[in-house]
C-alpha cells in the first residue's frame, strides 16, 4: 500500500495535469476517503504549493498561480522531452535566458532522473549531431519577449528602444505582427508606426518594450515567418548577384533557400516518374556582403549555371575550380 507521502506527491501530479479535480475524483484515484484528500491538500499548502478550493456543484481543488514554481512531477517521457528541448535550444542559440540558467535547469532535471533513463539520454546525446555550430548569439530579454508576444496576440502597439547594427539608438512605436525564430536568433516583424513601413527587428537589440493604449488591424498577406525570410532575401548588401540555373525549384532551393535568394515565378514541376526535361533555366537573385561562400554552393548544386553579375563572382568561381582540379591531380 502506498505511504501517505507517496499519495501526497500523486495528488500534486494529478493537480498539475490541469483543471479542477473534484474531491470524489481525487479520493477514487488515491484510494482514500474525502476527508483524507482534504488533509493531503492541507499538507501541500503547508509546503507553499498554491492549491485553491473551488466551490459549487463542480467544485473541488486546482492549482493556482503561485509566487514560485511548485515541485514538478514529471514522467520519464516528460523529463526527457524537457531536457532535449533545453539541450537543443542551447545548441542552436534559441534561448531567452543566460546560458547558466539553461545549464542549471538541465542539471536539476538530470540529477533526479532514474538511472535507466539517464543512461538512455546519454546514449542519445552521444548519437545526436547538429548540422550547425553551437549558437553564440545574444539572447533576448524574457520581459521584452513576453511583452511583444502579448502585443501580437491582442494587436496592441508597443514602444521600444532599439539599437541597429551600426550602434545607433532610437525609440520606435511598433505594430508587431509576429515573433519568428530563424537561424539561431529571435526576430519580431511588424510596422514602424512613425515610418509607416514594415520592419524586421532582432529581439536581442530591443532594450525595452512597453505596451501602449489603442489597437491596430493585423494585415492580410504573408505570415510573419514568410515576411522575415523574404525580407532577408531583399535586404541591401554590398553585392547584388544574378544567376541563371538550370533545374527544378527543389534542386535549387536545396542550396539556396528562400531566406537567401529569390527565384523567378516557377512553372509547373514534373511529377514523380515524368520526363525530367521539365527542368528549365531559372533566374536567381540574391544579395551578399561577401562572395567567397558562393562558389562552393554553386558547386554543391551540381547544376548548369551562368553568372550574369557581378564579374567578380566569375573570377572567384574560376579560381575555385582551379583549386579543385589541383587537389584532384595531387590525390
Q: Topology, pairings included?
A:
Layout: H1 4-16, H2 23-30, H3 34-46, E1 51-54, E2 60-63, H4 76-92, H5 99-111, H6 115-127, H7 142-154, E3 158-163, E4 169-182, E5 185-192, E6 197-202, E7 206-211, H8 224-233, E8 239-247, H9 249-253, E9 261-263, E10 280-288, H10 294-301, E11 305-309, H11 311-329
Antiparallel strand pairs: 1-2, 3-4, 3-7, 4-5, 5-6, 8-10, 8-11, 9-10
Helix pairs in contact: 1-3, 2-3, 4-5
Verbal overview:
The model has no long low-confidence stretch (mean pLDDT 81). The longest helix is centred in the C-terminal third of the chain and has 19 residues, at 311-329. The chain is built from eleven helices and eleven strands. It is elongated, with a radius of gyration of 28 Å. By secondary structure, it is α+β, with helices and mostly antiparallel strands. The protein has a five-stranded antiparallel beta sheet with strand order 6-5-4-3-7. A four-stranded antiparallel beta sheet has the order 9-10-8-11. The chain has a two-stranded antiparallel ribbon with strand order 1-2. It has helices at residues 4-16, 23-30, 34-46, 76-92, 99-111, 115-127, 142-154, 224-233, 249-253, 294-301, 311-329; strands at residues 51-54, 60-63, 158-163, 169-182, 185-192, 197-202, 206-211, 239-247, 261-263, 280-288, 305-309.
